[in-house]
């Protein structure tokens, strides 16, 4: 039997998310790494309840500054992000989805640990084909979340870059010139999830935003460690948590 509150379904489960009655909040943070989700829950949230661990994709709900908020890993790539975000939206009633992830810089003005707000997401993915659109779709963030995130960053004294990012299906690209071409079009950085999240959110009429931390600079061969990516991208996390 399902329990609903204002149309939101708390006891429903999917093959990938099994809350067992635990709440999933209307606002959720979505790191790719489930261990980053665990770090956020343990470091920032109060009254934490685990709502998922299927396939190791850890999910938690708690309170931050008196507001209910959830956090869950999504894995790598548009297919994984799209699967989890679709279920969170359509099955569990999530309204605000904030990706907090890492990205590789492809512009000289970006440095390690810089923060990027993705106002748009260019992509080499064919994910939009399912919509049978009679042209090319411009993939953009929700302005309400983007505006609130910028105001939060300003209050916290955090400098951010706002612009277009690349969501690529390809990590090891046979075309060694591909990122140079995207860079020439003003793309700030490359990652693998934002375009799928934004399309799912737009189609469902909910809000989405990607907040990214530069984990490596592709052209300068600079990089952070996996451990640093898991636990030290706290500026990005603290901006996102204020969006609940």
TrEMBL record:
Catalytic reactions on record: a purine D-ribonucleoside + phosphate = a purine nucleobase + alpha-D-ribose 1-phosphate; a purine 2'-deoxy-D-ribonucleoside + phosphate = a purine nucleobase + 2-deoxy-alpha-D-ribose 1-phosphate; uridine + phosphate = alpha-D-ribose 1-phosphate + uracil
UniProt site positions, description: Important for catalytic activity: 229
Keywords: Glycosyltransferase, Transferase
Binding positions for a purine D-ribonucleoside per the UniProt entry: 16, 191-193, 215-216
EC annotation from Swiss-Prot or TrEMBL: 2.4.2.1
Binding site for phosphate: 32, 36, 55, 99-102
Entries under SUPFAM superfamilies matching the protein: Purine and uridine phosphorylases
Name of the molecule in the record: Purine nucleoside phosphorylase DeoD-type
Organism listed in the record: Paenibacillus bovis
């Amino acid at each position: 039997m399902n329990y609903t509150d204002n149309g939101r379904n708390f006891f429903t489960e999917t093959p990938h998310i099994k809350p067992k009655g635990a709440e999933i909040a209307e606002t959720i943070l979505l790191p790719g790494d489930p261990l980053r989700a665990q770090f956020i829950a343990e470091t920032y949230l109060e009254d934490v309840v685990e709502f998922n661990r299927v396939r190791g994709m850890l999910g938690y709900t708690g309170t931050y500054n008196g507001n209910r908020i959830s956090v869950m890993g999504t894995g790598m790539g548009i297919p994984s992000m799209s699967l989890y975000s679709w279920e969170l939206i359509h099955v569990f009633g999530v309204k605000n989805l904030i990706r907090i992830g890492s990205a590789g810089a492809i512009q000289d003005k970006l440095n390690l640990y810089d923060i990027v707000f993705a106002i748009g997401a260019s992509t080499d993915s064919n994910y939009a084909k399912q919509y049978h659109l009679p042209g090319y779709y411009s993939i953009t963030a929700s302005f309400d979340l983007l505006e609130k995130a910028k105001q939060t960053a300003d209050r916290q004294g955090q400098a951010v870059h706002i612009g277009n990012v690349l969501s690529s299906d390809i990590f090891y690209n046979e075309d060694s010139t591909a990122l140079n071409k995207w860079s020439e079009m003003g793309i700030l950085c490359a990652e693998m999830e934002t375009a799928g999240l934004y399309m799912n959110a737009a189609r469902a009429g909910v809000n989405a935003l990607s907040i990214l931390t530069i984990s490596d600079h592709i052209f300068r061969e600079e990089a952070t460690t996996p451990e640093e990516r898991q636990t030290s991208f706290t500026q990005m996390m603290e901006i996102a948590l204020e969006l609940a």
